[in-house]
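Re: export button greyed out
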Amino acid sequence: MTTWTTRRQLLKGAGVLAAAAAAAPILSACQQTPTTPKAGSGKVIVMTDPNEFNDNDRKTLEDATKLKIEIVPSDLTRLYAMYAAGNPPDVFRVQAAGVPQYISRKMVKNLQPYFANSKLLKPDDLAPANNYYKWDGKAVGKGDLYGMVKDWSPDYTLFAYTKAFDDAAVKLPSDSTPLTYDELRALANKVNRKTGGKRVYWGFVHSNNDQWIDRTAMNMLAEKGQTLYAADFSKLNISGNPEALKVIRFLYDLAADGVQQTPTDPSPNWMGADFNNGQVAILQYGYWFSAMAESDVTKGKTVFLPAPTWSGVRRDPTMTATGWVVSAQTKDPDAAWAVFEQYMGGKPALDRAQSGWGVPGLKSLYKEMPQQSAFQKQVQKVLQGELSNADFVLQFNPYLSEQAFSTSWIKNLEPALKGSITFDKFVQNVETEVNAAIVDGKRIVGN
Amino acid sequence: MTGATRALERPMPRIAPWRRRGLRRAITFYVLISPWLIGFVLLAAIPLVMAFVMSLSNYDGLNLEYVRLVGLENYVRAFSDPDAQHALGRTLLLMAVVVPLSLTLQLALALMVNQSIRFTSLFRTIFYLPYVIPVVAAAWVWKIFVDPTGGLLNALLGVAGAEVNVRWLVEYPMVVLASLTIWGAAGGGMVVFLAGLQGIPAEYREAAMIDGANRLQVTRHITLPLLSPVIFFNLVTGIIATLQILVQPMLLAPGILGLSPGTVPPSDNYLYAVHAYLEIFVKQLFGYGSALLWLLFAVVLALTLVLFKTSRRWVFYGIEP
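Workaround output, generated via the alternate export path:
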């Protein structure tokens, strides 16, 4: 007797198998397992942004350390996957917002003993932004060093596109006297322009399209000695803190003014490219952007301005502090440190300083920043004033991931701007969601 | 004569020819499907089991030191998560819109390219092309296409005279997402329908037409019933694919980050898989995210079983060999 598979059975089987595989693609994404060298293999895996680490850097570091370096492109999802698989990279790129969390979860190595013995990276020579890599379990900026910035910028400075001001017949702000945020908002509304429903200039674009909105709010609040979170980071407190509510209302109103890119008025591009295209009148970005601010469109029409103040107190720290850390699970910490040390204090560090893509992580390299062109000289003049106001840190929450606040903000801003929810409900939603994430984060680390 | 010799002299048991053939067929079958089966076990079955275990824990994806089992807590949480409920609702709505429109378009395209007309192959290629374009490229093309400032869609709509400034991704994000999904899937479904159409013996249609049936009646009473197994297959796979959509809404969201934890699609396109992704990679709730995905699996399975149950009434296997 021969049994044939009927078409019905085949379709049935295909359907069931397809259903069984329904959730697999997303879940299996968590199972990628890049290779990690065995101890003493002489290979160091570095997860970093290939745009910041070219082949010359790799060769220079390999020559200096006699180690083989494998580069894995920076990708948070992949980093999690590598940790999940028990094979994290030996060294990886981070931003300040993630550092307390990584340290409190024991993911990164305490580098204090290495710094103490380093001939290249001396504690007295470290730029203030490196304080973001200190965490004593209670506050950012205190305790041992767990990493270092590759470079940094006072990040609240402004770039103005002079043509937008000329077109609006508005006087360009001074590059020696900082604006207040209220003045900035008024100015943004004056230079903001749409013609026939099409965007000509965004008045004021900031916070990396709201990805860093919490960082902006934290720095404004810090002028008054306040924070977004409770002292023990157990709670986001906006509605119970009049000053925090005022700051959040200001940032919300800026979005509602229509002077910036929002979920209801997005740009298909990133804000730096929009500035280069001559579509942004005032852009809030750090010194690093000066290396690319002058495009064919904006060349000769770009001015660097000091950071605005919320209440008259000058504060212009970095909000990113992009740098490197060494994984606590590295199988060869000495090799990882050797690569780290050379990258931060060797020739690659000098090359970075001379490129103008950020203030060096070592004060001794400050003098290497470029100041040839008229624009570079103007930038340096403003920057020198800002550096004296940069020795601060933002208190990032160790129980939250880098995007937890901004994701909630963006998600709720859309219905708020569309009128589906009120401002009060917007604040309540953000508070509820972020506080729930804090509770989850605390539970994970057993607090 | 020793026992061993007796054993040698014992006649070999006769194996029925059908059994030998059956064994050969079974071996051939398993050898042929083994590459897929091994892949399924390693890349789907094992991750599914691991994800289930993960769904019973508080795993954060970063450090095993803090992992502990939490029982069904993550599943209970999902039922009181307003974002999960909103996302599921949007996903089911998208499915209800996309699947019927997709099937209709795919069938219409298949009927068109099944005609004996000139340039049929060219049309088949053109219609199939979107199916092979990588989703990232397709989404970017659509994002530029519907851009309010420089996009082609508003320009085309404005040809009549009045300037059109519709912000498609803001005002009608789900329309764009549904269009992208339907457009992207059209070619694949068309090919399956085409294969089904070409498997229907021409004599059936000819006999009906000789009996006086018009084109509509032939389609209604001959083509569609005989095509119903293919319709059923495309329906099941279409539903499953729509329920899993993750990448497209992330790529269509404001900003340039694409499928990354910093991206938040607009509320209308906040789908279930997006919510699970953000819970996993933004809030680092790998356990909860896995529970959400297992619940999605249960929904998919339930819908599939319901469809199979109803299929007995409308799927016709009349030309089964």
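Residues 64 and 342 of chain A are 7 Å apart (CA to CA). The button fix ships in the next patch.
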